[in-house]
Amino acid sequence: MKITLFAVPVILAVVACAEPPAVGKPRSEMTQREKDSILAESGLPGSGVVKKGMNMADAQAKRAAMLDSIAKDN
User: What is the pTM of this model?
Assistant: First the structure.
């Protein structure tokens, strides 16, 4: 009982002094591409799928750029 009488005010004091959550702060300055790249290079399970997906997206972007340049030449 003595511990409870001491613990409750201490917990309330700690909660009262806690910093309120920041609403306007950005979560990160990194782009999604940078986050995915870090994940792809990690050794986590499934990171190979992320890397493969990024490689496929790069290949499709390269192909689309090539087709656009062909269309502009004609």
Answer: 0.55
Tokens read off for 43: 């050794």
CA nearest to 15, candidates 27, 26, 7: 7
- Give the chain as a 3 state SS string: CHHHHHHHHHHHHHHHHCCCCCCCCCCCCCCHHHHHHHHHHCCCCCHHHHHHHHHHHHHHHHHHHHHHHHHHHC
Contact status, residue 47 vs residue 40, Cβ threshold 8 Å = yes
Confidence band of 5 (pLDDT split at 50, 70, 90): confident
Cβ atoms of residues 40 and 51 within 8 Å: yes
